[in-house]
Amino acid sequence: MVRFRWAVHVGGWEPSPEAWSVCEAALNEQEVEEVRRFKRNEDRKRAIVSRLLQRKAAREGLGLMHQDVSIKRTKGRKPFVASVDKEQEGRRKEAPNFNFNISHEGNYVVLASEPLCVTGCDVAAPEQHRLRSIGEKADDFFKSFTKVLSEMEWKDVHTETGDTEKLDVFRQHWSLKEAYTKALGVGVAFDLGKAEFAIRRDEQKCIKGIELHIDGKRQDNCSFSLHRLGDHWVSVARCPPQDIVDAHGEFRGTFKLPSLHDLYLRKELTAEQPEFVLMSVAELLPDHLKKDYEMHDDDLF
């Protein structure tokens, strides 16, 4: 089954102008224009790597030629591969509902894909640098997010005593909520406070299980995982394809199995969650551009 977990560290990536041009050559005109709209260099780097990751996922997941890849977004801004007529024959047998999600924050851009369930992912960067710069305590920072976490979730946060540890747990809960809404494609309209996550940990604080409650009722039709990536947290959500919110139906139209039987769904929800694989920018490029990039980028990020 096609199940990708990819991450690119962009924090130390400083491409030369020539290497950047090679990366732009891997995108279409609209994508290049979207990347150039960002004012800050850090945002442009995240944006271009995000698009390169999506294109690589389409090539490897569906056997598409690079020039045939077409990425669109639902009304809720969920990206999907729209060039279904160019897919390599037989690839959909391995991934009938191939879909992916992308997230970027701090030093990382990440992508998760699933063959049957709809997926969402979210990377949460540490806030410590912000607290140091303005002299703010964690509890003061949390005042802006009072309604986002439930009473039980705040109790989980405040089980910790130090600011760093409190923020760590806060980011776990925040990231899970984001991944869940991104899996369903509901966008910013969803009230994050309605989704409550119970994170089970052992005595060493290793995560052993994650449960979702909506309006106080446990939900067993989705599964979740949390992954440590440096000092960032990444969460991944898996949900039934029949639960996707797709106003125009184009994304849903790419599914070969738009509804999963309970037994089949349970198998997918409990399938092993791969760890994230760290990739270089060079690895994201199509073969015909890799040599040009490597000529102009000594670090090979």
Rounded average pLDDT: 92
Gross geometry: globular
Distance between termini? 28 Å
How many E strands? Answer: 12
Within the largest sheet, what's the order of strands? 4-5-1-12
**Coarse structural class:** alpha+beta
Poorly predicted regions are none
Order of helices and strands: EHHHEEHEEEHHHHEEEEEHEHH
How much of the polypeptide forms β-strand, as a percent range? 15-25%
Q: What would you report as the Rg, rounded to the nearest angstrom?
A: 20 Å
Fraction of helical residues:
25-40%
The helix count comes to: 11
Largest sheet: 4 strands, mixed
What does this protein look like?
With 301 residues, this protein is α+β, with helices and mostly antiparallel strands. It has eleven helices and twelve strands. A four-stranded mixed sheet has the order 4-5-1-12. It has a three-stranded antiparallel sheet with strand order 6-11-10, covered by helices on one side. Strands 7-8-9 form a three-stranded antiparallel sheet. Helix 1 runs antiparallel to helix 11, helix 2 packs antiparallel against helix 3 and helix 7 packs antiparallel against helix 8. The longest helix has 22 residues. It is globular.
